[in-house]
Amino acid sequence: MKRTWPISTVDDAARARIGVTRVAAAHGVPPLERTRLAAALGARLRQCLTKGGAWRLALTKAGASLQVEVWPSPADGEPPWLVTAPCPEPAPAPLRDTVAGDATTLSEALLGADEDTALVLERLAEQERLVAFHREELHQTNQGVLALHAELDAAGRAQREAFAAEREARREAEDARRRLTFLADASAALTASLNHEEIVRRLPELLVPQYARTVDVWLFDAEDERVPSVPRPAAAVIAARTGRPQYASAHPGGFPGVEDQPPSALHPGRSLLCVPLPTRRAPLGVLTLTAPGQSWNPDDAVMLVELTRRAGGALDNARRFEHNRDIAETLQRALLTDLPTTPGLRLAARYLPATYGLNIGGDWYDAFRQPDGSLITVIGDVTGHGLHAAVMMSQLRTALRAYAVDGGSPGVLLTRLHTFLHHLQPDLYATAVIARFQPGEPVLTWAAAGHPPPVLRGPDGRVRTLDAKPGAMLGIPLHQEIADHTVPLEPGSTLALYTDGLVERRAQGIDPGIERLTAALGAFRGEELDADLDGSAERILDPMLSDSERDDDVCLLLCHIDSRVDRHAGSHLRTGL
Asked: What is the pTM of this model?
């Protein structure tokens, strides 16, 4: 029989000593010998543990003895330690009890101690395993906590990056919204005006200092003129000739749709953005901006190019409007008649074109004689504005004069004009009032078609509105016979014919304006009207138009019968007409 134990730790030594003791007891080694064997073996094992290293214990039964050997590590070169213990046949129990005596008691106590030690060692080993388990569990927990912290750090970084990206996206969105808002507001400000000089004046007000340090607007005097009359940056000249935006700076801008040029000799050290002002045919000028800082943000540059494009459209529209307005106004004034002179009857007329919008061309007045000597005075308004309305007004005036040659009362003349306009221009309408002064009759005959009513001032200063039932507008798709109306006419009387531009206000309507006109006409003295009818017309216009935006033409025709006419012996009016 042979058993071996490796010895490297205290636990290994204790287990080996206990194992040898148990084997010795099993093979009948006397208790005293077992005690000696255990003591010697314990001392040797303590020495081995003190020296350290790996040892090996071997127990061999050879005949009637047990042999215990302890080998050191082969590297030490030390001879093995050897001890033997006899194991004779077990003696009878009474003999053993007698021979052993106190030695048996001591051996049993030692063996019991070894058993307790083994139990303690086993418990210690179990506790050590538990400690190792808990240590490993704690290690795993620590690793998990560290991993969790790492994940939390990563999540925190990701969240911070997301917040930073969100802030950047929000900033870019706010910048884009700011640019769009500015572009919309600036475009509205530019297109609201139809005066090209005002548009040119507004551009620096809109762009300086946020988007430009300085603003220069170069407008061509003619469509094919691209040579500047004053020194201009080379980039501006290139933009004028090519029709493409140019950027002049020491460093390329790389703006979309913009060509890079060397720095300007006229503005060294500054960045210039030269953008043509486009129209339907060719650029009408170049807008040159100097950067508020070193350069422009690419998005700002794109926005400025778009704003310049819209400014070009606004300037083109303003120039077209001014051209058409000048033509219409010239035609309108050329078509207005010279008032005839008649003894005892004074005429004064005023025509004011609209100052806001292309609203000229529709209002007109006229005065002429019929073959029977009657004097026809007329005032009218053609719907629509501009050159087309002026042309239609001239046709109506010509047609009215042609119809008047054949005679006819004001109502008949208006009825003929209604039929003429309905067939000539079915989608165009007009209003008019015709008043006839007939020689030898102190009666005024008049007729109206959709027009504001005439106002008659008596010689006593009292004013009334001639609001008898008028006809409908001329040209509407309706058959109508416009009726005549008569009113007594005394020396010193004044008839006022006018268009709605004099009395109508959008916020108030027409009635308050007519009341103001009657008050203004009634405020004159008879002598003033006899002496200076033209001046009286001016004095009526001033208070009447003080609150007007003049977005429509204004016509006023005053017809005054001289109060110095002899009422009983006849008058120039009755004989001179």
From this structure: 0.53
